[in-house]
Design goal:
864 residues; alpha/beta; Rossmann fold; 4 domains; 21 helices
Amino acid sequence: MATKFYQHALALAFAVHEINQDPQILPNVTLGFHICDSYYDATMTYRSTLDLLFKSHQFSPNYKCDKQRNLIAVIGGLGAATSSHIAKLLDFYKIPQVGSDLEIFAQITNRDWRYLLLSISQMQCHELLKYCIPSFHCNLILANGLLTEIKATDIIYGSFDLQELKTTHYSSFYSMVPKESHQNIGIVHLLQYFGWIWVGIFAVDNNSGQHFLQSLEPLLHENGICAAYTKRLPYIARLDKMEEHIEICYSIYKQLKNDIHVVIIYGESLTIAALRFILTLGGIENEKLYFKKVWIMTAQLDFMLTGLLRGWDLQIFHGAIAFAIHSEDTPNFSEFLKTINPHWNKGDRFIQVFWEQAFDCFFPESWEQTEVMGQCTGKEKLEDIFKPLFEMSMTGHSYSVYNAVHSVARALHDMCSSQSNYNRGKYTSHTNKRGNTVKMQTLQAWQLHPLLQSISFNNSVGERVSFEHRMETGGKFDIINLETLPNNSFQRRKVGKVDPNAPQGEQFTIDESMLVWHPGFKQVPPFSLCNERCRPGCRKKKKEDQPFCCYDCILCPDGEISNSTDMDDCFRCPEDHYPSNGRNTCIPKNITFLSYKDPLGISLSAIAVSFVLITILVLQIFIKHKDTPIVKANNRNLSYILLISLLLCFLSPFLFLGQPEEVRCLLRQPTFGILFSVAVSCVLAKTMIVSLAFLATKPGSWMNKWAGRRLPYSIAVSSCLIQASICIAWLATSPPFPDVDMHSAHEEIILQCNEGSVTMFYCVLSYMGFLALASFIVAFLVRKLPDRFNEAKFITFSMLAFCSVWISFVPTYLSATGKAMVAVEIFSILTSGASLLGCIFFPKCYIIVLRPGLNNRKHLLRQF
């Protein structure tokens, strides 16, 4: 006998007692109950059902006789198979009823209390049924002169495998338990929460187990979870039949010894006891510490020991996580259990069997015998029984029985108290001599169906009970954590719930801090993976011929990252970020530009300022000695213009320093181009003057008319105007603008000026190069003229240096990025300007300042 299931019968008795004490439910009606046995056997289940349907003093199947029970509703079905057997019979028959007293009959196996059948007891039949039609479709029963057709209602409180019952379309079938699909979704959420993707599955080898696997396995696959193995546990109704499955038991034990830490178990009430038997058979007593598993158990299972197993501990299941039918602590139920004793109810034929097995004692044949060792005293207390044998708190199945009794009672109450007509059934009421209201002149049980379908009430703990979807009520599961105790008992911890009616994101909840784990785990929660997780910076690569949960880990390619474990693919960082060295995170790029505070910017600024000061010094020297021959030689005004243009050229790098802005970008390249064009144009004009002056000194030369004062200015102005025209066209068509370069530098965002039209930029450079090349050619041709201070030689060197700088500038500029690109251009400006300043003006300043004796007309013309 499974002593734990006696609580189901006591929950039934408690509910009946509670209803009888409530004047608001079925007043003037007293409820009672009767118990039968099904023996876990289909044949006995059919027989027990027929007993309740037809048996009074003798068993006459399909015949209604005097004082016959008349069933209206059935509450039962802890197992799906037995539920199906009883539903087949109850759906065939239509049962007559007449009377005022209500009785509740409960069919309860001596191993598993299963069925609660509600009936209306019949008063004395006025006429013995003389003729019955032996048909499974309809029984027309004449009783009390009334022709009635009443259809039984089956209310299941424990079965989850509703598929078979639904496919046969039993119209009388109702379920007090939530859908199994909600439990399966909860299992998937639990596995995902802890990252368990490599699990083992054990399912009982019957139709329920097959349906469970067919529902769960696709769901696991959809959510990236693999079943390392799937094994079928032998279905047994009695533990003494386990020896018939020894070979299967050994194979199951070998499978359990692998290193898969998470195992899902689906079965029925005796499955845990059978599994404990298998583990003992394999010698688990010597390996408890090393045999560490996280057992995930479904709601049909129960932590129970019975018979030969009662002395075995459940330490191996320490830390198990179980799904259970939602239950609450019903007020006064524990106090009700404390009143139970072997003599509490003379009609309870199971109490002595339960008492003997629960307390391991025996009752004497006569209480007059002398008390001996091991004899039951009747003073034992239920609260002293270990939980594997009996629990004082109401379990989920008992809670379902409790709600089922209340559902039927309230439906009957509504049926009896209604003044409306239900499908031609009329209800009238009158008052008897005692003042009690009497109803149900005609009461038909088929009217119970619409009432059950629409039933909705709050039970004693304030929870709403209703059949929301015709066949099921409720949808919540509790998540229970099992803590085994040294005294061979255990403690249930409610650590979470599965509620499909909760708001999105709250349908699955669990408090990880309340969980206890098997002591053999070094890390909690434990891992359950086919292989080590891929760390951030790597991605998964599927192994050939292996489940998708088994994979290799490879490093992310350059420029990509993975920022969490077990990523299928790497991804690129946003444009304003770059991958870390470990390729596991994105680091914001530094915003960069050549600023005044940058060391390179400071260096270039210092050089530019130095050249500006030197140019100003040279200009002062020339102004101070403006009347000396060396200053007046080769057009003094062009020298001033050249010095001023060089001064501005040395200042132009400051337009390139600092954060690029719209005005800076618009001005810097045109300014640089025009200023250098002015400088080179002046050099070209000075070169042309030297050349023309020498040719004009020859008598009869045609160059005499070109050697006037206007020629050099014409050359300088016309050359500058052409460059200015190019710059104006550039600004008008495609001007430069501030831009952001995300890609050139790996770790930097470069703020720069986009030149707009690259073609126009190189047109400016090309024209400036053309002027420099022309100056170089002319100066080179006249470099050997007989002049003591032949400026052509110096111009030749300056143009050579100038052209060399800008020829090398182009490839260097094109290959540079960011700060380097700006620095290259600034360096080229300063270097080319310095070459002009040094080569053309340094020799003259040397003579003016250090060799003033040479600065006279006589010395200047000595070579002619």
